[in-house]
Design goal:
This protein has helices spanning 40-51, 126-143, and strands at 27-37, 57-60, 64-65, 70-71, 82-92, 98-108, 115-123, 148-159, 163-173. By secondary structure, the protein is α+β, with helices and mostly antiparallel strands.
Length: 174
């Protein structure tokens, strides 16, 4: 009789509990910021810094938070870390133009069902952009057949001086 450790299935591939070795976020936080510069990329970088994610490597996610993922306060992230993130961002180069970016998370009443993140950015005021992204989250959660318990949202607005950027995000953490 051969010995197979409990966390190894018959195939010999290691499993991490019921998540089959996949990374599943347990925590998240929201962030938003804006920036302006004489260069578009520098404006975007300043928006990332203002949102608290500027000294990291962003790994863009699609729009799902797993069940039981809990909100935490924004926290300092290690410099150079690979950071799983869903985000909306917009950079514009027309002085005087107002731009905004926002994210929204729709949480279902059924806490065993995933939450849905939506991202949106546009020229215009934050109130309008945030209203639209919240409506997008509401519509797609209802399309999934889920009743909504709560919708959280955050965003940033910026009036361009030289080149401006607005950014909003959901950072997912283990």
């Amino acid at each position: 009789m051969s010995y197979m450790p409990q966390n190894f299935p018959a195939s010999g591939v290691a499993m991490a509990d019921h998540n089959q070795g996949l990374l599943v976020p347990k925590r998240f936080f929201l962030g938003a910021g804006s920036g302006d510069s004489k260069y578009p990329l520098c404006a975007f970088d300043r928006a990332l810094l203002a949102a608290g994610v500027g000294n990291t490597n962003l790994v863009r996610l699609s729009s799902i938070l797993p069940p039981h993922c809990r909100r935490i306060d924004p926290m300092p992230l290690p410099q150079g870390a690979l950071v799983p993130i869903a985000y909306a961002g917009l950079t514009d180069s027309t002085p005087g133009t107002t731009i905004a970016a926002a994210v929204a998370i729709a949480f279902p009443e059924d806490e065993n069902h995933c939450a849905l993140i939506m991202e949106y950015s546009s020229k215009g005021r934050l109130a309008e952009v945030e209203e639209q992204v919240r409506d997008m989250a509401r519509e797609n959660m209802l399309f999934r057949g889920q009743k909504i318990r709560e919708i959280l949202s955050v965003g940033a607005e910026h009036t361009v001086a030289q080149h401006g950027s607005a950014f909003a995000c959901v950072v997912s953490l283990p």
